[in-house]
Amino acid sequence: MGYAEIKQDLDREASREAKAGGACKGCPPPKKFLEECKKCSTRADANLAWADKMIAEYTKAGNDPSNVTGTDIENAVDASLTAQGIVTSVAGTTDASGNVKVKKQKGPCARLEEAATRAHEDVHANHTKDLQKKLGKNTPAFKKAWNDAKDWAGDEVNAYTAEKKYWEKFKDDCKKAGA
Ligand SMILES: [Zn+2]
């Protein structure tokens, strides 16, 4: 479920609530959405800061000529984060066929966080499909391009940028809703 759908869903609930209360003037005060804003603004900021951090990490790894493959990039980023004492967990994956998996999250902002991960993985899936179109499915040329260090790092930067846009839009919508 994308962010737009979540927002629509919450707006619909809010307008139902407003109608039930008989006070819908140009609808709504989107109560549910405002609750989500209140609950998740700290998480949104943390996720924005994390995306910035990861963009910097992948940019650095992508500029290091000793990284040749996507695996090299992942290892370099992991090593860098570990050296900083940062422990990470994988929230989603996209395989070489473009199949996206998003891990179920826990906590009050799980729905938003899963959608942000989906926005991230969708970038990878679309990029994988573009490469397949250009180079053929599972051809040696595709495999080489898909696992190329520069391409991998660039695709991660794009994916974290999409995640950032997601959270910025959330914050923006919260502000517009008066949160
Ligand atoms: Zn990614």
What key attributes describe this structure?
mainly alpha, single chain, 71% helix, binds zinc ion, globular, 179 residues, two-stranded antiparallel ribbon, 2 strands
List the helices and strands and how they pair.
Elements: H1 3-21, H2 31-63, H3 70-83, E1 92-94, E2 100-102, H4 110-135, H5 140-146, H6 149-176
Antiparallel strand pairs: 1-2
Helix pairs in contact: 2-3, 2-6, 3-6, 4-5, 4-6
Bound molecules: zinc ion.
Please tell me about this protein's structure.
The model has no long low-confidence stretch (mean pLDDT 89). The protein has one domain (3-176). The protein has six helices and two strands; from the N terminus they run αααββααα. A hairpin with a 5-residue loop joins strand 1 (92-94) and strand 2. Helix 2 crosses helix 3, helix 3 packs across helix 6 (149-176) and helix 4 (110-135) runs antiparallel to helix 5. Helix content is 71%, strand content 3%. It is globular and about 60 Å long. It has a two-stranded antiparallel sheet with strand order 1-2. By secondary structure, the chain is mainly α. The structure holds zinc ion. Residues 120, 124, 156, 159 line the site of zinc ion. Zinc ion (ZN) binds next to helix 4 and helix 6.
